[in-house]
Structures are given as structure tokens and as C-alpha cells.
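re: that chain from earlier
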Amino acid sequence: MTTAIEDHLVDTKLSTLWLWGEFIGVILILCLIIILISIRRGHGMITSNRFKKSRILITNGTSLLSRELHHQLSTRHQCQVVLVSDSKDTTSTVQKFDLTNGNVVNLNCDMLCHQQMNSLAEYVWNELGSVDAIIDVEEEVQSDDVCDVVQQTGTNIQRFLNLVTNFAPKMHQCGGGQMVTVRSNINAAGACISSRSDVLNLMQLTHNQATNFIVNIQLTTIFLNNQGSTFNVGGLMHYLGVTSELTMAEVADRMIRGLQTGKDNLEIKSRRSLIDFIVRKLRKQDNSELLCNSNISTSLKNCQ
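^ sequence. v structure.
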């Protein structure tokens, strides 16, 4: 009797251990799948380098994000980049372009003034011939006051409207292009997309291009999400010694990669997730192994 009870207890423990083993195995498989998907997104989802040697205009040229976008597009993608700063002082709008190594001098323009924006468009077209893409980096509202938020939002929409009315017709005549808006307030996503649709309809009515304008001009909105992600575990990240905030270079890189996928709406999270940390560690390990193998091969050749 005692032996039977002991055998039953042993079988129960083995069954429990087996169930726990299956549970842990499923969790590990799911984690592996998530990591593989993340790696694939980081490397294989980009359809093409659509910005290679393009001519790109970036607004809010004094911001760190705009300058980082300028740096990566000009160095990694050999683009000719125009940085436009929103300023009342327009003395530098007549500066000569310097296209050495894909760099362009900063230009100043009052982007709320339709006449100055028109002059800027004419000047850029005379110097570059055309513009393939415009990235409008909107200014972030630093105040929590409702009036300030409404005023800045209205200013951003007016700026974008001036960009569209002065640049989109020229882009359309040159074969089309892409207009990108970078917004820091993800909560205003619905209103933002609606306003872009209204602008598109306005351009169709103004220039009678209802059939071709949608095809030639792609309107893209990027939302910078500062709220982190589902996989962001602050305590664990801090314990592992990982900085949760992405660097400006990482944010710009994710924006460029996202734009290359051809999507109309993108969300860029400015906080690093635990999955990102694991993927980066795996990539660094792969790179170190490749470097080690390369050094070994070089040493063997030197010995021979």
C-alpha cells in the first residue's frame, strides 16, 4: 500500500515537472520568434534604398533631430540636403549652395509667410532642379497650457499648408515625390491625418490633378511616441544597466528605415524595449565573431 502511494506521488511530481517543462519551452519558443521577427524588421523589411542620392528638404533646421537626419541622409545615402530654419531673418536665403559631399548650407525663411516660401521654392528649384522629398519636423510644444498647444498646432498646420501649396505643384510637375510630417504628439493622430487629407483635397481642386496627384505625391506622417512600449520594463532595464531612452542618432535611423518601407503612417518609439536590448546584444555578438574570424584569417595570411 505504501509503495503504491509512493509510486503515485512520484508519477504526480514527474507529471508536474513535465508540464512546467512544456510551459517553459513554449515561452522560450515565443521569445525566439519575437527576436527573429525583430531582427527581420531591422534588416529584411526595407524594400529598397529609396533615398539614395535624393534631393531632400528638411525644416526646423536648428533642431537636433533635423541635423541628425541631415547627417545620416548625406553620409549614408549620399543625399543632397537642404536645411531650412524658421526665422524672420532671411538674409541667408541668398547664400550660394555648397553641394560638396552632399551637404547644403542652412537657409532661413519665415515659413508662415507665403511670399517668402514661394521665393524659397523658386530658389531651391533653380539650384537643385527639383526636390524628391520634404521632411517637415514640427516644433514640439514645451508648455502644458492648452492655449499654447492650440496655437502651436495651428502654426504647424499653417507651415505645412505653405509647404504643400508652394512645393507640391513643382514636385508633381517633376514626376512626384514624398512629403513627410514629423509630429511629437501622438494623441493628435486623428486630427493630423484628417488635416493632411483636407490639404490633399485642396491641392487636387486647386491644380485640377485629381487623377494623378495622389499617385505622384505621397503624404506620410511620423509620430514620435515618448511613452515607451509594452515590452519596456524600467526596473529590469535599469538593473541590466541599459539606457531606456534612444539616442537622437537611433531615432533618426529608425525614421529613415521606416520611411523606406513606404508606409503612410509610422510610429517611432523613443524608448528602448527589452526586446531591442536582446536583439542589439545578439547583433554585437555576431559582429564580434565576424571581426574575430576576420582577424584570424588575416593572421594566417600573414604567417603564410
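The domain at 49-228+242-278 is CATH 3.40.50.720 (Rossmann fold).
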